Amino acid sequence: MSGLTRTVSLTGCMIGALGLIALLGLRSGASADTPLPEGWVDNLTDFVLLQKSIEREGSFEPYLGQLALVQHLLQNNDLQGTYVALRRFMDMLETREGGIRAAAAEAMWDYCYQVTPPAFHDEKRHKRWWDKTVEWEKFFWEE
Q1: For residue 111, what are the contacts with CB-CB under 8 A and spacing of at least 6?
Q2: Which residues contact 47 (CB under 8 A, 6 or more apart)?
Q3: Sign of the CA dihedral 134, 138, 141, 143?
Q4: Are 99 and 52 in contact (CB under 8 A)?
Q5: Residue 1 above 60 pLDDT?
């Protein structure tokens, strides 16, 4: 087997394994038995506050209010409600609610995906984020 063929085969196996892990994690959703990392909503809220302190345009209050709702639902162990409320937060970012700049919305979007537990990720939005952040030509052809 040539080096290129071995590399392509190994890459395919790795992508398949990562895809399966991601698919299982996303499909399983959050349950009362699933341990969730502590402080992720606080970290996301702090990041929104940081963006608010940097930006001169738009209102960040709707985002902070939505994250307060996410925190409340999570503290009450309403995992389905948390999922729905976080989806609404992402909707707000997509529509730039409050008149915020695109750069601020994209930064909050990216950070949200970094800190949010996979059980609360939306598959379609996750794919969009993955496609945006991975340089596919480099991923497949550069070592």
Answers
A1: 44, 47
A2: 107, 108, 111, 115
A3: negative
A4: no
A5: no
Determine the residue type at 43: N
How much is the pTM? 0.65
Contact 129, 90 (CB under 8 A): no
DSSP letters spanning 69-115: HHHHHHHTT-HHHHHHHHHHHHHHHHHTGGG--HHHHHHHHHHHHHH
Amino acid at 10: L
| pLDDT at res. 119 | 85
CA dist., res. 60 & res. 107, Å (int): 13
